[in-house]
Amino acid sequence: MHTVWKGAISFGLVHVPVKMFSATEDKDISMKYIHTQCGTPLSYVRTCHHCDQAVEWEHISRGYEYEPGRFVLFEKDELDSLSEASKEIKILDFVDLHEIDPIYFQKTYYLSPGDTGSNAYSLLLEAMRQSGKIGIAKVSIRSKSSLAAIRIIGDCIAMETIFYPDEIRPIAQVPNLPENPAVSDKELTMAKMLIEQLSTPFEPEKYKDDYREKLLEAIQSKIAGEEVRVAPEAPKTNVVDLMAALQASLEAVKPASVPTQASESTAKPKAKSRKKTKEETVS
């Protein structure tokens, strides 16, 4: 696995050096937008509609739109100075896992011992396992401050980033929720019986992404049937080729009726020669 963060878990005066790894991976099948007419992949270009030109990263700032069309700008170092970024997962409290609604959970990370923190890691792991508690911590990853739940999965300390309370939308904002619903006792009994019949221990390995499997089969079928679009080869250019192309372009658009200096110098003597010959012929 790729290490995404290095730091330490702290609770009280105890520091546990750890390394962080993503516990999950996105297996969505990535597809690109293709120009249908020629088969070329389309690229994302950062453009300024006012200047009508592409913009490089060094000319880009971050801005907050406080009124329509009006922004306050921040440079990266200004935002970094406001961040609480540190290499510390600071445990603030220990709570019971069942007290946290799943709506709060975002992303899971595995934490392994740092190069010198094996003993402290094992101590924290076993203490949390036996207490049955999880830690609520604050952590900054990529300059973003997050709450996190520190818990045990198997023989590993895991960290779940969780939303702050004000990031959870109130249920009252959901439209058309029934008020004081009337439920038939007979229908309720049958519904509970159906739930009981479908109840089973959770076995995550039996669930599969059917759409992804069908899409992979369709991709392989198209490849086997040679239903393939080949993108045109991108033009290979370098400084020498570009200069040659510019020179050729200038030559191509040069008006044929306008003589160059060289042609004028050669044309004049020829005109005199023809005139002399004509006079000699008349005489």
From TrEMBL:
GO biological process: DNA recombination; double-strand break repair via nonhomologous end joining
Disordered: annotated span: 253-283
Residues of the Ku domain: 52-179
Coiled-coil positions: none
Keywords: DNA damage, DNA recombination, DNA repair, DNA-binding
A GO molecular function held by the record: double-stranded DNA binding
Pfam families: Ku (PF02735)
InterPro entries: DNA_bd_Ku70/Ku80, Prok_Ku, SPOC-like_C_dom_sf
Keyword Metal-binding on entry: no
Quaternary structure note: Homodimer. Interacts with LigD.
Family from the record: Belongs to the prokaryotic Ku family.
Main function: With LigD forms a non-homologous end joining (NHEJ) DNA repair enzyme, which repairs dsDNA breaks with reduced fidelity. Binds linear dsDNA with 5'- and 3'- overhangs but not closed circular dsDNA nor ssDNA. Recruits and stimulates the ligase activity of LigD.
PANTHER family with a match to the protein in the record: NON-HOMOLOGOUS END JOINING PROTEIN KU (PTHR41251:SF1)
Protein name: Non-homologous end joining protein Ku
